[in-house]
Amino acid sequence: MQDLGRQFDVVVIGAGVSGCAVARELARTTASVCVLERGDDVCCGTSKANSAIVHAGYDAMPGSLMARLNVEGNALMYELAKKLQFTIKSIGSLVVCTSERDMDGLRELFARGVANGVPNLEIVDRDTLRSMEPNISVNAVGALWAPTAGIVDPFGLNVALAENAAKNGVRFAFDAPVTAMERRPEGGFALETPQGRFLARCVVNAAGVYADQIHNMVCEDKLEIVPRRGQYMLLDTTAGSHVRHVVFALPSAMGKGVLVSPTIHGNLIVGPTAEDIQDKEGTDTTAAGLAEVTEKCGITVADVPLREVITSFSGLRAHRAEHEFLIGENPSAPGFVDCSAIESPGLTASPAIGRMVAGIVCDILGLGERAAGEFVETRQGIPNMNDLTYDEWGRLCEENPLYGRVICRCCHVTEAQIVDAIHRPCGARSLDGVKRRAGACMGRCQAGFCTPKIMEILSRELPGVSMETVTKAGPGSEFVFGHVKDAIAKEGCTHE
Ligand SMILES: Cc1cc2nc3c(=O)[nH]c(=O)nc-3n(C[C@H](O)[C@H](O)[C@H](O)COP(=O)(O)OP(=O)(O)OC[C@H]3O[C@@H](n4cnc5c(N)ncnc54)[C@H](O)[C@@H]3O)c2cc1C
């Protein structure tokens, strides 16, 4: 099919990790592909607010899609990180048992992991556990050790997938929520957005917590996605080494429980809760939720330095009653492919999800691969000053003096990195966009010092963007509402 601008072989709805992983895989084929995203950027939904653990894969039920894609995704993720240059660390995870009574539960988890094909699992005793994790609770009696688990930069993963997809010809439309969709009599779909109508032969539904609304527009069976909120506290980098591995409690029916883990940016994360709510935008934190996190993190880890909390946040799992990914073409709507109910471990599974969904689309449309060498497999990441020696940093400054202007003092992010983040394919257009790509604003001051400087850079680098129209995260989140002098003049005040 000829690409007529708004007419595509495939439209992917949603630019989270799932949609971007699918889009990147489809970019290997001859299909014309467009991603429609309701937010102003990639990584606006659940992909930006989660534990960011690369799960080993012992948690999901053997035989489930979740289990298979988790283990496959884990294996693919480390290789993908090298190709696309996002940050990942293989630090391993421990599921800690704090009572002899519960050791059977731990052994069950071990058996499940073995059935799922998770390599190198081991049950470690109290002494081994203590030597691995000195701050473990005194009540800990043993743990399930999974060396293939890790931590990842979730923004970096999502942005890298999108950038590489765009580099390979995928189009992205932001601020483009799909508000209606219908099947066309001649086949395919017509999708309505505030940016006009898009036509597609095939649609991939990767709309996160909104996937039920999209599904129910064209499918006869009805889908219900319940937002299951998880609240977190993030601690300063001074607390980042309180644990060395991802430390979980034994999982329950509501999920994997409260974890304590280092993050890829050197902080310590504690959480999440698991609360079913109605509001698909309900990402607020509550006193009760944070109190629960405070209490539960102490079950597995001693003396968590909670005075070091620098921020709190929450994310929404796209939960459905079956607690299973929903992936496949819907029989009542040929060409409509769900990539829905991608709750945890969706981040880990994303490379495998991308392959699986793209495979389904290829079968539906009879797509072939692009000619050899046409698909660019790799991506150059934005250099991170924290990974460089002073000499290496100095050499960068000689090439580009903007590497010598530190804008974010907490995280050592320079003007050169911010400018780079803005001018890449699918580049940053807001403060949060800069944060997710260049790693600014993530430190102790939580953007208190660097916000005005980043606003200046955004308004200088982006055509048509002034200080008044720079946003934190898209329309409605502007920082500046006018000039103080104008307000004074209007009010008739005088300065004394
Ligand atoms: C508390 C919590 C902890 C988690 N921890 C982990 C973990 O440690 N490891 C792990 O592997 N997984 C984890 N997950 C799961 C993981 O974060 C998700 O599975 C994954 O991010 C889902 O990605 P997605 O692309 O499917 O959805 P999203 O990231 O939500 O993307 C969906 C996108 O669709 C867009 N959209 C919605 N409606 C429309 C519309 N009408 N038109 C256009 N666009 C639309 C949204 O704006 C959004 O950008 C966790 C999740 C939560 C909530």
Jot down its keywords.
alpha+beta; eight-stranded mixed sheet; five-stranded antiparallel sheet; 22 strands; globular; binds flavin-adenine dinucleotide
How would you portray this structure in words?
The protein has 496 residues and is of the alpha+beta class. It is 31% helix and 21% strand. The protein contains 13 helices and 22 strands. The chain has helices at residues 17-26, 65-84, 103-116, 126-132, 154-167, 211-218, 287-300, 346-365, 390-399, 415-423, 431-438, 451-461, 484-491; strands spanning 7-13, 33-36, 53-54, 88-89, 93-97, 122-125, 142-146, 150-152, 171-173, 180-183, 189-193, 196-205, 226-235, 246-249, 259-262, 268-271, 275-276, 309-319, 326-329, 336-340, 406-408, 413-414. Strands 1, 2, 9, 10, 11, 12, 19 and 20 form an 8-stranded mixed β-sheet that branches. Strands 13, 15, 16, 17 and 18 form a 5-stranded antiparallel β-sheet that branches. A 4-stranded mixed β-sheet has the order 6-7-5-14. The structure holds flavin-adenine dinucleotide. Flavin-adenine dinucleotide (FAD) binds next to α1, β18 and α8.
